[in-house]
Amino acid sequence: MNLPELPFALRPYGPEGGWTYENGTLTGRAGARQDRFVPPGGDTLEPASDAPRLLGAAPAGDFQLVARVKVGFAAAFDAGVLYLHTGDREWAKLCLELSPERPTICTVVTRGHSDDVNSSVVDGDTYWLRLSRTGHAFAFHASADGEKWTFVRVFTLGTPEQAATASVGFLAQSPTGEGCEVAFDRIAFRPEGLADLRDGS
């Protein structure tokens, strides 16, 4: 799939997500009990389940991937996600998630096993998300209006070589429910990093 806002093509991974793009909006759907998460207390490195993803190889250098996400919340942990993938055991998610009763900005970073962090409760079913690469590091931000950004997390993932060849894109999940519709609009790709992760820009 080619989106005019992105300088790279997207390919589907995982279960069928019914991804479509029309009039600037990308839509997809997670099926019942679909998630991409490796429980931190488990003895396996395999995800408990899998979720629909639409990913492409980011161009070299620093960048920002921005989108406004709208989630059809129906069950706990339904989410629309900006997704980062650097290796089979290394991926990360920036989520607008029903966690478990109120919309929340959540993050997951998986290095073999997944961690799980709630950042802030937000109002409504729509929020802006931003995934950035700066050097060998990645940053997550969230925003109510797409103008003033709140710092959520900065981290490394995989080797510097893996970070330089990361894939990025979109994911839908419904870990406990019967399915979840997600829509991403105002999608933008900026071939530049962030000078200051914490100044709101």
TrEMBL record:
The lineage of its organism: Bacteria, Bacillati, Actinomycetota, Actinomycetes, Kitasatosporales. This is DUF1349 domain-containing protein. Signal peptide: none annotated. It comes from the Bacteria. Pfam families: DUF1349.
